[in-house]
From TrEMBL, chain A:
Gene name of the record: nthA
Keyword match Lyase: yes
Nitrile hydratase alpha/Thiocyanate hydrolase gamma domain span: 13-194
Enzyme class: lyase
Protein name (record): nitrile hydratase
Species this protein is from: Thalassovita mangrovi
One Pfam family here: NHase_alpha
GO molecular function annotations of the record: nitrile hydratase activity; transition metal ion binding
From TrEMBL, chain B:
Protein's name in the database: Nitrile hydratase subunit beta
Organism: Thalassovita mangrovi
Annotated Nitrile hydratase beta subunit-like N-terminal domain residues: 1-101
InterPro entries per UniProt: CN_hydtase_beta-like_N, CN_hydtase_beta_C, CN_hydtase_beta_dom_C, Elect_transpt_acc-like_dom_sf, Nitrile_hydratase_bsu
Record region (Disordered): 88-109
Keywords linked to the UniProt accession: Lyase
Protein family per UniProt: Belongs to the nitrile hydratase subunit beta family.
Domain Nitrile hydratase beta subunit: 124-216
Species classification: Bacteria, Pseudomonadati, Pseudomonadota, Alphaproteobacteria, Rhodobacterales
Catalytic reactions on record: an aliphatic primary amide = an aliphatic nitrile + H2O
């Protein structure tokens, strides 16, 4: 039946297992390999955290847009073209000097795909999921973030289909920067609540 | 269910390992699992709650030893087997032994962008909410053997309703193909001291989304 009967034995276990399932489904006509390629290309090259960075930069630049994000994040974000799977019901969480927001999904890996892309490995791993809701200051320290003791930490566990985007505080020294330059300062981790935006380079 | 997925607040899982945001995958097989999982959803055998239930139903020793894409792959095998589309024989052989049953529902490459952009909104018409923003509520001691989205750390604790989201599909029902049964959905905020005791961080609050059947008036 096989031209190379030992071929699978040369693959690592997970590669072999994934390939077996895909092969079976393609042979049965249940999936189109080109559709699989298109899905991969979408989340590898098109949909990622630069989308969210553009949302944050606009919120920093345009008070009316920030207000819209507060009132109806789903619509405000959709107006920039970021829609669809795992972003159907969006809420923006604005950090302030008094309140820091941090997002987790303790039960699985819920994450706002249209604005941040696929979740990073650590977001899906037990260490983050178990500790974010209990000891977020220690988790933040592992990201190099040290918040003042007086800052409240509000953790949001994504137990339903609401997805959260943290809007970090605009860094000082960014007056006059345009939205594209501001977006370059916004890190993915800062939009989960696990980091701070970059500071502008001093000239 | 009190399964391996319910780890919020648990100890012993070690340190978080941050990673550069340009890293998308760690191996080619992870990409294929992502694509095959999303494409297979179009066959219409399960919903998002049932797929989560398939993942949390893996044996704990398997779940904790698996990367998240391995969890996805194992759950997908189980979902397709339960649907009658594949067999363990086929998986060990690595080839199909008979044709697919729902090949007519195969997702074509040209439809991917539209399907991803459409997503799957979970809001539905449903009953009026019993609770109001600002109400003090207590989560029930809700421990079904099946799927639920009330995490163990937030059971039997008092919190404040901070938002109402209308009615959303009820996972405890939908995850078992027993209907969408839309129920009012709330954001409930807890103080960490209420959840974990006097030693907890006094500056910490934790918010969950809770469907009305998870709650009672405090």
């Amino acid at each position: 039946m096989h031209d190379h009967p030992h071929h699978d034995n040369e693959l690592d276990e997970m590669t072999a297992r994934a390939r077996a399932l895909e092969t079976i489904l393609v042979e049965k006509g249940l999936i189109d390999p080109a559709a699989v390629d298109t899905i991969i290309d979408t989340y590898e090259h098109k949909v990622g955290p630069r989308n969210g960075a553009a949302v944050v930069a606009r919120a920093w630049s345009e008070p009316d847009f920030a207000d819209w994000l507060r009132r109806d994040a789903t619509e405000a974000i959709a107006s920039m073209g970021f829609v669809g799977r795992q972003g159907e019901h969006m809420q923006a969480l604005f950090n302030t000097p008094e309140d820091h927001n941090l997002v987790v999904c303790t039960l699985c890996s819920c994450y706002p795909w249209p604005v941040l892309g696929l979740p990073p490995t650590w977001y899906k791993a037990p260490a983050y999921r178990s500790r974010a809701v209990r000891d977020p200051r220690a988790v933040l320290a592992e990201f190099g973030v040290d918040l003042p003791e007086t800052t409240r930490i509000n953790v949001w566990d994504s137990t339903a289909e609401i997805r959260y985007l943290v809007i970090p505080e605009r860094p000082e020294g960014t007056e006059g920067m345009d939205a594209a330059a501001l977006a370059d300062l916004v890190t993915r981790d800062s939009m989960i609540g696990c980091g701070q935006p970059h500071r502008p380079a001093t000239s | 269910m009190n399964g391996p997925q319910d780890i919020g607040g648990r100890h012993g899982f070690g340190a978080v390992q941050p990673e550069d945001e340009t890293t998308r995958f760690h191996a080619d097989w992870e990409k294929r699992v992502l694509g095959v999982t999303l494409a297979s959803a179009s066959l219409g055998y399960w919903n998002i709650d049932a797929s989560r239930h398939a993942r949390e139903s893996l044996p704990p020793a398997v779940y904790y030893n698996a990367s998240y894409y391995e969890i996805w792959l194992r759950a997908l095998e189980n979902l397709l087997e339960a649907a009658g589309e594949i067999s363990r024989d086929e998986l060990s052989e690595g080839h199909a032994q008979r044709p697919g049953r729902r090949a007519d529902r195969r997702l074509p490459a040209g439809s991917v962008a539209g399907v991803l952009a459409k997503g799957g909104p979970a809001d539905r018409p449903g009953p009026d909410p019993v609770f109001a923003v600002g109400d003090r509520v207590r989560t029930r001691n809700h421990q079904p053997a099946g799927h639920t989205r009330l995490p163990g750390y937030a059971r039997s604790h008092c919190g404040i309703v901070t938002a109402i989201h209308g009615c959303h599909v009820y996972p405890d029902s939908n995850g078992h193909f027993e209907g969408e049964d839309p129920r009012p959905l709330y954001t409930v905020r807890f103080d960490a001291v209420e959840l974990y005791g006097a030693d907890a961080d006094p500056t910490l609050t934790v918010s969950i989304e809770a469907w009305e059947p998870y709650l009672e008036r405090a």
